Amino acid sequence: MNKLLKAAAGIVLASALSVSAIAADKLKVGFIYIGPPGDHGWTYQHDQGRQAIDAHFGDKVETVFVENVPEGPDAERTITRLARQGAGLIFTTSFGYMDPTMNVAAKFPDVKFEHATGYKRSDNVSTYGARFYEGRYVIGQIAAQMSKSGVAGYIGSFPIPEVVRGINSFLLGAQTVNPDFKLKVVWVNSWFDPGREADAAKVLISQGADIITQHTDSTAAVQVAEEQGVSAFGQASDMAAFAPNALLTSIIDNWADYYIARTQAVLDGSWVSTDTFGGMDANMVEMGPFINMPAAVKARAEATAEAIKTGKLHPFAGPVYKQDGSIAAAAGTTVDMGTLLGMDWYVQGVDDQL
Amino acid sequence: MSAYEAIILTIITASTPLLLAAIGELVVERSGVLNLGIEGMMVMGAVTGFAASYVTGSPWLGVLAAVLAGVATSMLFGLLTQTLMTNQVATGLAITLLGLGLSGLIGSGFVGLPGVKLTSVSITGLTDLPYVGRLVFGQDPLVYLSVILTLGVAYILKHTRVGLIIRAVGQNHHSAHALGYRVVTVRYACIAFGGATSGLAGAYLSLVYTPQWIENMTAGRGWIALALVVFSTWLPARLAAGAYLFGGVWILGLYAQGMGIGIPAQLLSSLPYVATILALVIISTNRRLSVINTPASLGQGFVPDR
């Protein structure tokens, strides 16, 4: 029933868009969002990128967006709608839009598509993602230094490679400080459900975790951490306002530069299908201010972030052991990109089964 | 606070909004009206409650505003379905869509602001009692209110004249009308009550559960509440048990995950609906149950034939 409703909401929104969309010669850039821009997390940052396009190009470009589009068939209809309305470039900003994006792209060869965090491409479909796991490594290291109990809680959305990679990277970072650091993982099966994210945080804290981190989109978990006096990290966007005492830092997604560059490419006619996987080096992943921690921890975090940025440090540098004890990357090598992109195993030390 | 207290407290927090929204809908459905707009009324309550408490600084004014917003939204539903005789299912869905959209609009200026939390009760001496202190004497006021409302509804429906009239209107509105009861007025009152408790449930989300305003923060709880009413076979006691069961299963599932016992989260998310389907199957195979409790006029509009 809920799905049906969201679909109906999507149709209502899409038809509302068609009324406002008229301008002819301008390039129209469309965005499909999984949540509301007001989530202060994932979608918020994409919307910041959209606004950056508006600010950068002014009258030359018009941006439109549809929010709260469920993944699956409803997404296909909404993307088609945007393409029919004359969008020349469409950003689909969630993993689950992958197949819908491919299907629609096949029907509209003249429209350029950009799919976030996916792996399927064609002549008019690019993919882009960010190496968030680089930030996860930094916060893992901070967590192990700040934790008194030696246990952190990790709230996951869905067990897809992107999330699993973050969990592994966090723990690998933590293990550089405390090899016995424990990580409890709880899945809430949603990207956005503040109540459940809060429940999960409470559960993890009551089980001994004194550091909470999450790969979901709302600010609920950091608020619970603030209330219960444990530490937390912001995800996707700077969440310091929600937990001024609990927050240590945030991993911030910065899509603005990429969105402006791709829009410019369409305007120039130089757009080609690419696969971008930018990290700290491209400023696609940024760390928020390091707060509520001793100077030594802060200095180490800054040094780690800098080392990742310059390429001196790779979070998945060997030796990396899988949960079952087998070796994933020997000393002197790193886990290769293909394995990272399809990661479906935990590293040793994760207190959960996939 | 021991681990078991923490578990029970979390379960109560997760269950209370379901119970609040569902107890109102139970009364609405007992009067023969199917209001699918719970989610919309709830989210309107959540945004209004947050906004009012943020502006005034008083969580209680927020609660009051949420109740009024819930009632106002439900009265729109009442006007459409009872006076203008629109289809109840379609109108309910429309109210949900309207609520989700309108609340986003109202709340756009309140996103990302720190909320005012409704503080828990604290009674010197009693709240600090070991084991039971926090559970019995240290909840937030809305939890007590939800229990009182449930007991009140159970008593009124079963033991009072008002309850009898509500049930009569829901069972057979023509007979009730022939006996001289004002079917439409009774239904309006019940719809308003449902709106009030849905508004309360919304306030619970934005003032207690996660004290902030985020668009769509109800995240489908209205539908679970609706499922609960069916699950309870329209009985308040069973409704309360179901609310705590749904909340409990969810929280215990999270606990199991945190302890490293793999329970797929997808399975947990679907459990309330699976339980409801099972309840429906049981109701439809047991003729006595369906005859006794299901409001026979559920979802049918009433036009008096003068």
Question: What does this protein look like?
Answer:
The complex is a heterodimer of chains A (354) and B (306). In chain A, a hairpin with a 5-residue loop joins strand 13 (320-321) and strand 14. In chain A, 40% of the residues lie in helices and 20% in strands. Chain A has 2 domains: 2-130, Response regulator (Rossmann fold); 133-253 and 287-351, 3-Layer(aba) Sandwich (Rossmann fold). Chain A contains 11 helices and 15 strands. By secondary structure, chain A is of the alpha/beta class. Chain B has 306 residues and is an all-alpha fold. Chain B has one domain. Chain B has helices at residues 3-30, 38-56, 59-83, 88-107, 133-137, 141-159, 161-171, 173-178, 183-209, 221-231, 236-258, 265-285, 287-293. The chains are: A alpha/beta (354), B mainly alpha (306). The A-B interface holds A 1-2, 5, 8-9, 12, 35-36, 38-40, 68, 153, 184-190, 192-196, 198-200, 202-204, 206-207, 218-220, 223-224, 241-242, 351-353 and B 3, 6-7, 10, 13-14, 17, 39, 93, 96-97, 100-101, 104, 107-108, 111-112, 114, 205, 209-212, 214-217, 219-221, 223, 250-251, 254-255, 257-260, 262, 265-266, 268-269.
